[in-house]
Amino acid sequence: MGRPRTNDAAVRERLVACATEMFATRPQESVTVRALAAAAGTSTAAVYTLFQGKDGLIREVRDQAVAGLFQDLTAVRGSEAALEDLYALAAAYRHWGLEHRHLYTVLFGGAQSFVPSHRIGDRDPVRPLVAAIDRAVEGHILAGDTTLIAVSLWVALHGLVTLELAGSLNGTAAETAFRSTIDAVLRGWAAPSAFPGLRRTDPAL
């Protein structure tokens, strides 16, 4: 009687999980197919059979990260207030990053980095954010190019999440930094008529 065939789905899942952690915590060039296979308890042949090699496995990890972030951001219920939606989306982005630290690191600075571009695809993880910014610009709440505003907000969010993941920000300091930084970015792009409203949370102004 022959040996039972390995469950490809289970092996695939283990390889992706191991690759996610290894690519997020080690230099890409140091992660070999042999090391990935050993960590997942399988053979190097499985990496090539299931992913066509290391690059294919990297793409799979990144695709899962993109899908996860996109799912969480699209789950944010929209409202008639574009500005409130932007705050809610920023909070959802931060929450996803903190809850999925390895996927976040791979997506935004690990083995294969992600850079927002002028072309936003239907399943681009920042698409919900861009859509809310579009509404804010059309409603004369924010003034400027949508892509530039989106990149500014993403840079601020990425910096905050990265500092929190590194342990440089935590607790009350992290919460305060998040609120004040997002406020500052949105004020910077605020239309003149909306500027007083965007400053309402700052008692000194």
List its salient traits.
elongated, 10 helices, mainly alpha, disordered N terminus
The total strand number stands at 0
Largest sheet: none
Q: Give me the number of helical elements.
A: 10
| Apparent shape | elongated
Question: Quick check: average pLDDT?
Answer: 83
Estimate the helix proportion, in percent. 55-70%
**Sequence stretches where pLDDT stays below 50 over 5 or more residues:** 1-6, 200-205
Measured by DSSP, the beta-strand proportion falls in under 5%
Rg over CA atoms: 20 Å
> What structural class should be given to the helix and strand makeup?
mainly alpha
Q: Helices and strands, in N-to-C order?
A: HHHHHHHHHH
State the separation between the terminal residues, measured CA to CA: 80 Å
Description:
The chain has helices at 8-25, 33-40, 44-51, 54-74, 82-99, 101-107, 127-138, 146-165, 171-188, 195-198. The chain is mostly helical and 205 residues long.
Overview in brief:
The chain is mainly alpha-helical and 205 residues long. The chain is built from ten helices and no strands.
Strands, helices and their partners?
Blueprint: H1 8-25, H2 33-40, H3 44-51, H4 54-74, H5 82-99, H6 101-107, H7 127-138, H8 146-165, H9 171-188, H10 195-198
